[in-house]
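Here we describe the complex-level prediction in full. Unlike the single-chain runs in Section 2.1, the two entities below were treated as one system.
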Amino acid sequence: MTSANLPPVCILGLGLIGGSIMRDLSARELDVFGYNRSRSATRAAQREGFDVSTDLADTLRRAAEASALIVIAVPMEAVGQVLAAIAEHAPHCGITDVVSVKKPVYDLVRSHGLQSRYVGGHPMSGTENSGWGASLEGLFHRAAWAVTYDYAAELDGAGTPVPESWSTLFVQVCTLASVTGAEAVPVSVSRHDEAVARVSHLPHVIAESLAIVGDHGGTLAQSLAAGSFKGATRVADTDPSLVRNMCETNAEALVPVLDEFIALLVDARATLSANTPSLKQLAESGNRAYVRMGARSGARHESVSPVKISSRPVMRVHPGAPGWVRQLEQIEALGGRVEVF
Amino acid sequence: MTSANLPPVCILGLGLIGGSIMRDLSARELDVFGYNRSRSATRAAQREGFDVSTDLADTLRRAAEASALIVIAVPMEAVGQVLAAIAEHAPHCGITDVVSVKKPVYDLVRSHGLQSRYVGGHPMSGTENSGWGASLEGLFHRAAWAVTYDYAAELDGAGTPVPESWSTLFVQVCTLASVTGAEAVPVSVSRHDEAVARVSHLPHVIAESLAIVGDHGGTLAQSLAAGSFKGATRVADTDPSLVRNMCETNAEALVPVLDEFIALLVDARATLSANTPSLKQLAESGNRAYVRMGARSGARHESVSPVKISSRPVMRVHPGAPGWVRQLEQIEALGGRVEVF
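The structure predicted for the assembly as a whole is:
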């Protein structure tokens, strides 16, 4: 998977994620340009020598001329508007995105009739900071980069061949992930949203709630707070509008996961308030779950090699080859990464 | 506050905390010896040149001869037994401890009639690992080290002078904290237990529960888990028996704090499952709480000096001077640190 598979890349939205992708591509001397709504952030990027503009229509016409891969990196609330502009100015470009929920984006993509030109994406990396000023090179190194393939799965399930243009786009998106140092993990839209509700959106809800409970303890609690508190609240530093965007647009998947979590706490509350307080069940099953998740990381911790080995099983896939969509489904079940060739 | 105030130190229990204290004192060439139940850990410590034994009675007789400061660093469940041995073999030594709950320890101390020889302690530092093998020099650097003073507050409240022997012991415990690089934070037993329920025990309950919810998501969720999940679950790696010990012995303070946390989640669940899902209130108040807690850290983040400035307000106190117990109460209200002179 080399950058030879990558056309010029047009990034719409240069916040933490979009900006970091631009830095990574630019550092590899790949052809990248972009659009940002904020004039001050755009000027800051221009001063660093990046090829960016505040004119969306103009940027999209340029993308159309260059047959660029368009990366939608705006907040969820702006995706509909950006897709409308793409449908108008660059309807034949391949499109991907980096939004942290996939079903709401896919619904909008379909409503604009762009699904044959779309492969969803979600790099699982970030910091508690946001905006161009927070972007940095190398942010995605070794991170998972979810890549959706529902369009191909739907066609394949109906016995319809997947168009070559879509397979090519899938390769491009996997290549984009790869050149930033990330690992492409194929996943369906719905399984993605359920998984990130568990491992990303729930932790955000927890961080906000725990920050409030800690703050209720006043200066003494703040003074005594150590690693466990800091680790669990760090992401409460995130701009609340971004947290709302993630959680609200993924509420359908998040609510049942939140219910699972609340049920565990309610059980713990019951055993802790018994005459003989006990946390036996939660502490033991929690630790087993933690160890099991770590064990799946396999070589990552055990390797003595200075070269870190990815913990994710890899499957090499040739998009368009017979059975390739079935292969993606197998990798998804393993949480594995795909290498296209 | 120099190590001149410190008599020989006798550490009972050489796990992560007791072992790390031994390493710190030893590195400063202070007189330190100790006891550990485990023969293999004791041998490991001996091989590193530490003065440790598996004979508790013998170690305590030595402590009595040397008028040592005894540090109880065994798990909560073993504290009663250790106090009984101290009452038998070293009843005149000063005693402190490093157990993560203070009321259950203080109750046991009183039941052995040792309260005039006891100043409770709790260094707010640790890792997810345990045992001598996990101990390390410098673990407490810049950490808060809670130091209790209920005995003095009770006497002072009743208009009874605090015995000089107790004031001297208080100085010794603050000095112990100081020589490990920690900051002594005076706190009453009950306010300590309430604060650590918020900032330590609740995060442990959260980590266990979140690990289970993440694990339910299978390999895909594990593959997609990034910083927010890892930060919030890290302490689920802790030995479950230690987590049980902390949470079960502090259940009285932990249950109401858990109720506060559950109530926030139940509210969030309600607004997220509305027709128009919203996390506005939680995201905004959580972020405000986080920022407020950070703002209290004052100079810590803003200082441009290469010498880090402590975020905790400092008050210099001369134990035994008129009004000194009242000073401790003022520092406690600020979550500040005490410097004895």
